[in-house]
Amino acid sequence: MLKWRCGLKCSMWGVGFEMWIYKYVLIILVMMIINISISNADVGEMGFFCGVSEGVKLPKVMDSYVPITARSNKKELRYKEMVFLRGKPEVFEGLLTISKSGDVDPSSKVEAGSYSMTYALEAYKEPFVQDVDIKRTIIFNVNYRKVDNQVLKNYELKSWKETITIGEAKYTLDDTNSLFNNTIIEYNSPGIKYYKGSIGYRAIYKNDDQVITVNVTGDNGIYGYDQAWGKTETQLLKIYVESVSGSDLNIWKLEAEVKPSITVNKTMQYDSNMPTAIAFGGNYLQVTQNQSGITYKVTNKPTNMDYNNVEGNISVPSYNTFEHLVAPENTDYLKGSFAEEDIKKLYSLEVLDSKFEFIPNQKITRAQYVTLLVKALGLDKKYPEPKGYKPVKIFGDVDIYHPHFRNVEIAAQVQLIKGTNKGNFGPDNPIKREEAFVIYMRALGLSRLGQDITPTTPFIDDEQISGWAKKDIYGLYNLGIIKGDVTGNLRPKSEITKAEGAAIINRLINYLRKDIENDYVEKLIEY
């Protein structure tokens, strides 16, 4: 059993003073989250030119324990791009180098700023053809401002140099008359950063008397997310190409749709040991997978050209990374539990640890559930105790010596929990199912999905769901995350056991690993 340490309760100033302190501290914490919740990942790992890179790997567990002192602001990524300068789709392959001078500072109180980003590409026609290549260097100033939990970014074009060589023809970008515009909105929920972008550019290329104008539009053309278990970006681009020349052969028009996408996620697989005489039977291996590709379709090809490859798919090869996780020990007592695998996985991921004595049928408290959720979302690593940290009481009934104080504090910072109207949290009270589901939905940041005027869930015991919880539960049902029991009931007022809590948390991790991806890849590409 977990043993709680007792703290002193100051009552000499009265309840009014405690409420004032609670509100003051909560305001400070909300201000902190505005400044520290910004992800360091940048939009545009694939670039913005109808191409896609292999994508940047997610950090390993080890990275949060062993500091890396020399993290480079430069990334070199394998890359492929669709080119239509000859009136037909052609694939170029090469190396995309992305570098930047800074970032949105998560700890800064400055609400606005800028940094530069450079995209440099050297690519060759696939399969390799001599004297057929792209050389491009484009530099942006990324101007940003922070508004609550949102970040707004505008990409200001500073320099754009490009040549495309195809045999004896050399197409040089007219950088004076070429234009580029890209604007991004990022929304930082407690567990996920969502983003959306609008992009458009006009590139004018010249070769002797031939002038080719490429217009690319994507008014709502970029969608993505970034979180501890996976990230995805998909672009929806429409291309309009027009060639004008003194030669009739070089007068043509083309229209096409290009949809590049990147997905990166972590999966787990159990690795049994082959030797018999070994101290542990096996452990989980965490695999990080990158999948990148482009779907394209020529919707209007030049009338004076004849070819068949008007649509297709291409992919960028990548490699998986592997990492051994902690082997769960002393778990024989879990055999027969419906949540045995969930619990073992949480031990391997160190969401559960030896300090958390796990009795499956024992009720899980509100503070314990919040601690599991904070760890599952990686928030304990994202918000480590700052230098000179001095805990300040945030809820009237959560003492600074409470074993889960820090995780409750983090949860309050990111607005996962709000407490009661009396300034308390009830850390040692068993958590009810409807309470757990509401906190779950806040982690996803998708409460808007339940904003029906009169949300009525399909559960038989719908009337037992509290009014304040119904919209979030309705949203979770629409996402397919909760389905109720075999009788069709949700049992919203039932207290959750530790086994049920582990199953709920692992279900969240699985959703973040893969299920959320479908909305950003399959759905958009089929659109």
Characterize this entry briefly.
This protein has 527 residues and is α+β, with helices and mostly antiparallel strands.
Walk me through the structure:
- By secondary structure, this protein is of the alpha+beta class.
- It has two domains: 14-35 and 326-517, no CATH class; 46-323.
- It has helices at 14-36, 340-348, 366-376, 379-382, 405-413, 433-444, 467-479, 498-513, 522-525, and strands spanning 51-53, 74-83, 90-100, 112-125, 132-147, 150-166, 169-173, 179-188, 193-207, 210-227, 230-235, 237-244, 252-272, 282-300, 311-316, 321-324.
- The chain has a 16-stranded antiparallel sheet that branches.
- The longest helix is centred in the N-terminal third of the chain and has 23 residues, at 14-36.
- The chain is elongated.
- The protein starts with 13 loop residues before the first helix and ends with a helix.
- Mean pLDDT is 87; it is low at 1-40.
